[in-house]
């Protein structure tokens, strides 16, 4: 039977009376201005968008120390504990990536090295919520990868330095902190100004303007992901607790009014009950305005006939976060491949991944999980190769092969590099070399 939809999202279009913002054009204008005018343009947009224009956007050591001192002791301890979890997992990832060298044939050595990016920018959002967890995920992960210089940027909150976020950035190992938000921050980092050092790579989530800024700047610098709204998919059978399903759906729907929240279940009873509880919980959820809008416009509940169908449908959604509430949740590891992160069983949840458990929360959205994973230590490494031939015979044999292979593609210059070594080590005859030697001899006699 075909899947049965107990709920589909309205995906309501914006009111025709609401002004449409041309995000791409606005972002391009800011980037072009910063390219041309540097610091003065950065300050102009910081004043315009954040009402923030300090003497220096970069925090001094004294300002950082003061920010940390203003954070409650328990919060500092919690930050350290969470960062220990993130660091432990990041080190395990780094240990899984190795340099190697192999001898592919006598005297031919090929190798791989993993070199960290030199300068990384980390954007830590702070508009709707102070997302200090993003400091752990970007700055700390880059540092574990071996990045020597990480520059962090985060916006002011209500015209003030966000002390808790600054503490998290500092404890993660950041080298410079700028209180600077939005497109002006990512553009300044990507382009470089009179006072802000240009980065080679930019990581971290942000709003639609930040995401568009990263998209337009990609190529000038590397970026982690093209990010979209947060997504959650929960796959259940009849053993799932509808109250847990409802609670966890809303935990992600509160990210914003456009966050897809989907339930795929083999149990119509679980689906119906989950919907009833979601409606009830929205009555007193402090973030109900956002979560409710998201659930109304992008919430779906789908009933399927079997878990096999659920796994296949889950891979089609390719959601950022996938929670598995089934009798045997680890089955999803074998049956599914397209997801940003899996959360197996009701003892875990996406919120743990977002905030505390240790895996990275910068993950692919908008079906990008079909072709990429999320942010990890490897994103901050450049995997490079090297070659060395120590055996003359091996060089000569490869020279003969290169000559034939290159001429099959009409690349005569490539072929001659191979010919030269075949001549040098095997004394092969090539007319182009003989002609050159004859001409060189005549010239030497003049």
Automatic annotation (TrEMBL):
Keywords attached to this entry: Amino-acid biosynthesis, Histidine biosynthesis, Metal-binding, NAD, Oxidoreductase, Zinc
Classification via Pfam families: Histidinol_dh (PF00815)
Keyword Transferase: no
Keyword Amino-acid biosynthesis: yes
InterPro entries, per database record: Ald_DH/histidinol_DH (IPR016161), Histidinol_DH_CS (IPR001692), Histidinol_DH_monofunct (IPR022695), Hstdl_DH (IPR012131)
Pathway: Amino-acid biosynthesis; L-histidine biosynthesis; L-histidine from 5-phospho-alpha-D-ribose 1-diphosphate: step 9/9
Class of the enzyme per the UniProt entry, highest EC level: oxidoreductase
Cofactor needs: Zn(2+)
PROSITE patterns associated with the record: HISOL_DEHYDROGENASE (PS00611)
Catalytic reaction annotation: L-histidinol + 2 NAD(+) + H2O = L-histidine + 2 NADH + 3 H(+)
Enzyme Commission numbers on file: 1.1.1.23
Domain of life: Eukaryota
Family according to the record: Belongs to the histidinol dehydrogenase family.
NCBIfam families recorded: hisD (TIGR00069)
Function: Catalyzes the sequential NAD-dependent oxidations of L-histidinol to L-histidinaldehyde and then to L-histidine.
Protein name: Histidinol dehydrogenase
Species, as recorded: Paraconiothyrium brasiliense
